[in-house]
Design brief:
Length: 236
């Protein structure tokens, strides 16, 4: 049974989401920029982007902004709720404790999300609980919903400034919270991040260039699919 192997501490292989081909000018062992990706519970949208960007060689961390990790349960009135910091392995085992639970949560896709999370890092992390010194190491933060974008911007604006007071480019790629849309927007996020990474690797100042890059990206993407993009320059 899969749950038993997780409980035994078996190391899961990192998901092999196709990373896409980076531009020649951006090929490097580590990226110039540090990226953060944020959704509500750090299990679907932000984890999809974490895998895609990480497999492409970008420096990436992922977070949630919710008060708790909320997963779809057997009804809308019965979500499965966990504290941030609860290991993905522990969540997996909790939802596969009986054959009936395991069958249900395999069917709705939640166990697969927990397996992916456990293959990438230990547990969901909450954006607001991260230290300002750590948050300030990110150059670009992508939020996958407008209310999450607002929460990230508000959080950055209410924190005490760090000594270096560095710019952080916050971007919203509005994405429905389901695995299919997360996969699509994970690829979109990668395209945008490579454009920003390419600009930074050429020595360009993103404070001057990022807004134009995001605007041009949105205009180009709108010819293929409807995508709602927001941008805010913050400092921390």
């Amino acid at each position: 049974m899969v749950a038993a192997s997780l409980a035994a501490g078996a190391r899961l292989p990192r998901p092999s989401t196709p990373p896409g081909i980076p531009p020649e000018s951006a090929r490097r062992k580590t990226s110039t920029l540090s990226f953060g990706v944020v959704c509500s519970s750090n299990i679907n949208r932000s984890m999809e982007a974490h895998v895609v960007l990480g497999n492409a060689g970008l420096n990436i961390e992922s977070y949630g902004t919710g008060t708790q990790v909320r997963l779809p349960g057997k009804s809308a009135m019965e979500p499965r709720i966990f504290k941030f910091g609860t290991p993905y392995e522990e969540m997996y085992n909790s939802m596969s404790a009986t054959p009936e639970d395991e069958a249900f949560f395999v069917h709705n896709g939640v166990l697969q999300l927990c397996r992916r999370g456990a293959a990438v890092k230990v547990a969901p992390q909450r954006w607001q609980d991260m230290t300002s010194e750590f948050v300030s190491t990110h150059d670009v933060v992508i939020a996958f919903e407008e209310r999450i974008f607002d929460a990230v911007v508000e959080d950055l604006q209410t924190r005490e400034p760090t000594e270096n007071f560095e710019p952080i480019h916050v971007i919203c790629l509005d994405t429905k919270d389901n695995p299919h849309e997360a996969r699509l927007q994970g690829r979109v996020a990668l395209e945008l991040c490579w454009l920003l990474e390419k600009s930074a690797s050429r020595g360009e100042d993103l404070v001057l260039e990022a807004a134009a890059i995001v605007d041009a990206f949105q205009n180009e993407r709108m010819t293929h699919t409807q995508i709602h993009v927001l941008y805010q320059l913050c400092y921390l």
